[in-house]
Design goal:
The mean pLDDT is 95. The strands form four sheets. Strands 1-2-5-6-9-10-13 form a seven-stranded antiparallel sheet, with no helix packed on it. It has a two-stranded antiparallel ribbon with strand order 3-4. A hairpin with a 5-residue loop joins strand 5 and strand 6. The protein is an all-beta fold and 155 residues long. The radius of gyration is 21 Å and the shape is elongated. Helices cover 0% and strands 61% of the residues.
Length: 155
C-alpha cells in the first residue's frame, strides 16, 4: 500500500500587454504505507524516483505579431533511488531560454520559427533514475547544454 498526498498551485499574471509570469508549484508526500519483502520492511519509506517538490516558472515577453522570448526555471526536488531509501538523488535547478518569431505568408498561412537552449548553465543532473538498480547502476546522466530550433507552418 502507498500514500500519495499533496497540493499543486499555479499562478499566471499578465503584468503588461507584453509581459506574462507563470508559476506552478507541487508539494507532495509519496510513501509506502505497508511494504514488506524478504529484503526488508519498507513501510513509511519514500517511494523512489519521485521528487516531492517541483517548481516551474516562466517569464514571457510577447512582442508584435508572433515574436516572443521565454525564460524558464525548473526546480526538481531531491528523491531516493531505492525502496530502502539508502540512495539519495540531489535536487537541482535548470534554466531554459527560447525565442521565436512568425511571418504571415498570405491568407491564414503562418510560418513560425524558434530557437532555444535547454540547461542554459550546463548543470549536471540525471535524466533518469533506475529504481532499485543492480550493482549501483542507478543514474543516467542528462545531456548538458542543448540548442534546438524548429519551424512550423499553420494554415
Amino acid at each position: 500500500d502507498s500514500s500519495r498526498d499533496g497540493i499543486e498551485l499555479a499562478l499566471g499574471w499578465q503584468m503588461t500587454p507584453s509581459w506574462r509570469l507563470d508559476s506552478a508549484l507541487t508539494l507532495a508526500r509519496y510513501e509506502f504505507d505497508e511494504y514488506d519483502t524478504q529484503d526488508g520492511n519498507y513501510g513509511g519509506n519514500r517511494i523512489p524516483g519521485l521528487p516531492e517538490q517541483t517548481w516551474v516558472n516562466q517569464l514571457t515577453w510577447q512582442g508584435f505579431d508572433e515574436r516572443f522570448a521565454t525564460l524558464e526555471t525548473q526546480y526538481i526536488g531531491d528523491m531516493v533511488a531505492d525502496d530502502a531509501n539508502d540512495v539519495a538523488i540531489d535536487d537541482y535547478w535548470l534554466v531554459n531560454l527560447r525565442a521565436g518569431d512568425g511571418w504571415h505568408l498570405g491568407g491564414d498561412t503562418l510560418l513560425k520559427g524558434y530557437v532555444g537552449v535547454r540547461n542554459l548553465f550546463d548543470r549536471e543532473h540525471f535524466a533518469n533514475v533506475r529504481l532499485n538498480g543492480s550493482y549501483g547502476r542507478y543514474y543516467e546522466p542528462a545531456p548538458g547544454r542543448t540548442v534546438y530550433a524548429g519551424m512550423e507552418v499553420a494554415f
